[in-house]
Amino acid sequence: MDKKIALLIILLLVGGRTFSQVHYSIEGSTNHEYEGRKVALVMLEEDNRQADSTNVVNGKFVFKEELLQSCWAAVCIDGMGGIFTVLENGNIRICTDGKEGWCEGTPINDVFQKSWREYQVLNQAGIDAFKKLDSLNVETERKKELCAITREKVIKQTKEFIKRTVYENLDNIIPAFWIRIFQEQITVDELSTMLADASPMLKNNRFITKMISVQEGSNFVDSKVELPDGTKVYLSDYIGNGHYVLVNIWASWCGACIAELPEIRNAGEKYASKNLKLLSISIDRDRKNWEKALKRLGLPWTQVLADYSFVNSYGINKIPVLMLISPDGIILKRNFSIEDLNYLFQN
């Protein structure tokens, strides 16, 4: 047999085993108020890329395609929040009741939907607990104590939910969703333990691989950003160049972010002798709002604007966020408070 033909056959066989395709079909149904509205299929693992779109016709919509592997997506109907779904083999049904939507009909989606409903109950219980605290007629300090106790309880219950859901689904990509959403509550060691016995499907999921790449102890991931004058630059122009960098991730619409800025400024001045520089990264979607905020606040350190690829790469779920990066570009600490800098620089 000709060597070239033999090599081609081997490659085809290997390729057939490695790149099995996913054939999915999404069939959606809505009530009459959504008739004619746009429906978008958004690839969550690809920086929220819109892969396809259609319109609701006679209360129905359909998406069909092939993929190399299962992945996370969202079906977004105008006027309704995104409906999370796993694109996997089979016929996925998207159903709505006019207020919310859900997915069903395929194995992983059916299991995910069960965990999603469980989390919704857990989340609502937390919301109700804080509302109850707000209505209490007690002294401010006592209310702060009760809020701290409630917060710890909610975090504990959430972590227990995440841990159980992960270990029950190590053979699929459901854990990737929950780990991505709550990664600030999961330490590097906890993540490693969770994934130790995970299937290749889960370990190779893009949410997981991206999260692993930006854990404490990893090199920072470079990203293209913009200066206030519109110049395109890279994070590597400011990070990994021989000094510590305190990265502040914020947005003009975030009250907690604005409140933290004076403390960040003070930290920059206090630790300048420790070779610390400041870098603020805004995730504003409206550039004009960012520009107005910069003009109003007069922040004297480097300010850049990032797009969703940065948010997705670093798994940003809430702001403000602080990261401390070493002079050689290693992520030393994530998700800490400005007060922790004293401890970090002393150790």
Molecular structure report:
Helix content is 41%, strand content 24%. The chain is α+β, with helices and mostly antiparallel strands. It has 3 domains: 3-104, Immunoglobulin-like (Sandwich), CATH 2.60.40.2560; 109-213, no CATH class; 224-346, Glutaredoxin (3-Layer(aba) Sandwich), CATH 3.40.30. It is globular and about 65 Å long.
CATH architecture of the largest domain: 3-Layer(aba) Sandwich
Distance between the termini: 66 Å
General form: globular
Q: How many structural domains?
A: 3
Question: What percentage of amino acids are in beta strands?
Answer: 15-25%
Q: Main attributes?
A:
about 350 residues, alpha+beta, Immunoglobulin-like, five-stranded mixed β-sheet, four-stranded mixed β-sheet
Characterize this entry briefly.
This protein has 347 residues and is an alpha+beta fold. 41% of the residues lie in helices and 24% in strands.
List the SSEs and their pairings:
Blueprint: H1 3-18, E1 22-29, E2 38-43, E3 49-55, E4 60-67, E5 71-77, E6 83-87, E7 90-96, E8 101-104, H2 107-134, H3 140-168, H4 174-181, H5 188-195, H6 200-203, H7 206-213, E9 224-226, E10 232-234, E11 244-250, H8 255-270, E12 276-282, H9 287-297, E13 302-305, H10 308-314, E14 321-325, E15 331-334, H11 341-346
Parallel strand pairs: 1-7, 11-12, 12-13
Antiparallel strand pairs: 1-4, 2-3, 2-5, 5-6, 7-8, 9-10, 11-14, 14-15
Helix pairs in contact: 2-3, 3-4
